[in-house]
Write a structure and sequence with these properties.
Order of helices and strands: HHEEHHHHHHHHHHHHHHHHHHHHHH
Structural class: mainly alpha
Strand content: under 5%
Number of strands: 2
Helix content: 40-55%
Largest sheet: 2 strands, antiparallel
Strand order of the largest sheet: 1-2
Number of helices: 24
């Protein structure tokens, strides 16, 4: 029997995983590996949990993550009447994997992370038949995709069966998006207090939420006279940095109505790591922030759960003051547009690496763009691509070469319209020209889905409009559209009618506003339409505002996604 735990830390590191893999050479690989991994405390393994897997495939999941997520969800949804049938869940059992099976908890968690993503009217809450549950899970998965979760390899069936590794993977993405939402300069100008000497706002804006959190923690540790940390895993194991961080951010009662919470530092000198961690978490509890980690998670340095713990601390008590420095150009903090957010979420939902936090800055080496070319079936010669880490000298030249290659691929073989767009524009992060390329990538991706369904027949705007009007007419609907610029689309009635034509009887027309519509009526219809489109299985990335304002590009994607869904039923 191979003992994979070489350093006896109670966990399997990547190096230990490689060791096990190299040592196990017999035909009994899966069986031996299962035994090896199951010796690790806190790791559960499930064999053959995917239909596509060969027999004996191993999917492990973390008991610590399950415990943390259950407690987080219990607290978040404790007062939601729609979740009383499953909340509270017992973190020590498999309650979680059963609770997500009807889709309601997932939909609620998505709305907590990105409010108003899902129209509550579209969630089936009663008479949960298998078909009704399928709709809820479609709604959850397509909405998760729309907020940037990578759900390509997760199906409704996986969630209904409660496959642990897939459930935990999806929940982590949803929770993380919510935790990171305000760790963004345009959402929280006080983060500018983290600027270092010689830096500009642009430098700070390039940092990922993880990097900003680390800088935030070190800002407070420096003020406490404690040494800086480089991560939220190995360097927080003794809890001492956490003690100082809590002491720095605890409310001092200096503002009107603010309580004063004095952190008890006596546990700082506790000799036992686990006991010290427990003392620290008792102080975090006084701040209402004892979430995500147990003493064992701190001592073992669980990176995911410690990151979540720190993000929650930041969201509750950032303890930063917006600097009054006149040299700061605040006009840079306009925040991303709806269009930019939609494109960014679309990319992330496809699983690009690295994750895109800032649309233009994160595309400046073209690696993400080149991955998107592969998603639209444009072959990429990766031997021509420079990959990080880039050399200190000439790094920008390497990135520029990638950008030039990306533009070349766009001109041929993709045959995009890229007049006046060069690699330098992508490398510079030129918003208008970068968006022009990204839009063509997203458009091609959308149309490729239709071509796959239509046995290779090329799809274009006219074909989509004709299909929409024919489908509406055949279903006896009175609505129609002239083009994707048709102002009547602002009512969303054509979208609602098309959804009902594709899946007859799914629309509750009592919820649809008709006649002379106010702006709020249009928005209500659009919210319902987008959520219902996702519920019947259309992966719509557009937002309700895109329909109300009749944004032709996004309107096209809505009708194209619905056409794809409609063609699947034929």
């Amino acid at each position: 029997m191979i003992d994979g735990d070489k350093n006896k830390d109670g966990r399997i590191s990547f190096e230990e995983f490689v060791y096990i893999f190299q040592e196990v050479k017999s035909s009994d690989i899966a069986k031996t590996f299962r035994k090896a991994i199951n010796r690790k405390e806190g790791i559960c393994a499930i064999g053959g949990t995917s239909e596509l897997s060969s027999e004996g495939t191993q999917h492990s999941y973390s008991e610590e993550e399950k415990y943390a997520f259950v407690n987080w969800i219990n607290k978040a949804l404790e007062n939601d009447p729609d979740c009383r049938h499953v909340i509270p869940m017992n973190p020590n059992t498999d309650d979680l994997f059963k609770a997500v099976g009807d889709g309601i908890v997932l939909c609620k968690m998505i709305n907590l992370s990105v409010p108003d993503t899902i129209d509550e009217r579209a969630i089936n809450k009663k008479k949960l038949t298998p078909f009704i549950i399928q709709e809820n899970l479609n709604l959850a998965l397509n909405s998760a995709s729309a907020i940037g979760c990578h759900v390509v390899n997760i199906g409704a069936e996986d969630l209904r069966e409660g496959k642990p590794h897939l459930v935990l993977g999806l929940l982590w993405q949803i929770i993380k998006i919510g935790l990171f939402a305000d760790i963004e300069l345009s959402r929280n100008e006080a983060l500018a207090a983290l600027l270092r000497e010689g830096e500009t706002l642009e430098d700070l804006m390039k940092l990922s939420p993880e990097e900003l959190l680390l800088r935030w923690a070190n800002f407070h540790l420096e003020n406490a006279g404690w040494h800086k940390i480089n991560n939220f895993s190995s360097e927080i194991k003794d809890s001492r940095a956490y003690f100082h961080l809590l002491n720095q951010i605890a409310p001092k009662g200096q503002k009107e109505g603010e309580p004063q919470i004095d952190v008890n530092m006596s546990g700082f000198n506790e000799k036992d790591d686990l006991k010290r961690a427990e003392c620290m978490l008792q102080q975090a509890d006084r701040l209402g922030c004892r979430q995500f980690v147990t003493p064992a998670d701190v001592v073992s340095g669980n990176p995911k759960l410690n990151l979540a713990f720190v993000a929650n601390l930041f969201n509750k008590y950032p303890a930063l003051t917006k600097p009054e420095n006149q040299d700061i150009d605040w006009t840079l903090l306009e925040g991303e547009t709806r269009e930019e957010r939609t494109f960014r979420n679309w990319m992330n939902s496809l699983g690009v690496n690295p994750h895109v936090n800032h649309l233009y800055g994160d595309l400046q080496d073209a690696l993400v763009i080149l991955q998107l070319y592969e998603k639209i079936k444009v072959p990429v010669d990766w031997n021509k691509v420079n990959k990080p880490p880039y050399p200190k000298l000439g790094a920008n030249m390497k990135k520029l070469e990638n950008c030039n290659y990306a533009v070349d691929l766009g001109k041929h073989p993709a045959k995009f319209s890229l007049v006046g767009i060069g690699g330098q524009d992508l490398n510079d992060g030129n918003p208008t020209l970068t968006l022009a390329l990204v839009w063509q990538l997203m458009r091609r991706y959308t149309l490729n889905v239709l071509e796959d369904l239509g046995d290779g027949q090329k799809a274009n705007d006219d074909i989509i409009v004709s299909w929409v009007n024919r489908t509406l007419a055949e279903a006896g609907k009175l609505s129609s559209i002239q083009s994707f610029k048709d102002k009547s689309i602002s009512s969303s009635l054509a979208v609602v009618d098309l959804i009902d034509a594709i899946q007859p009887g799914c629309i509750n027309y009592d919820l649809v506003k008709t006649g002379e519509l106010l702006e709020e009526d249009k928005h209500s219809n659009a919210k319902y339409a987008v959520s219902m489109a996702r519920r019947i299985g259309a992966r719509v990335y557009a937002l309700p505002e895109d329909l109300v304002e009749v944004k032709p590009k996004m309107v096209m994607t809505v009708f194209a996604c619905l056409m794809g869904r409609g063609m699947k039923r034929v």
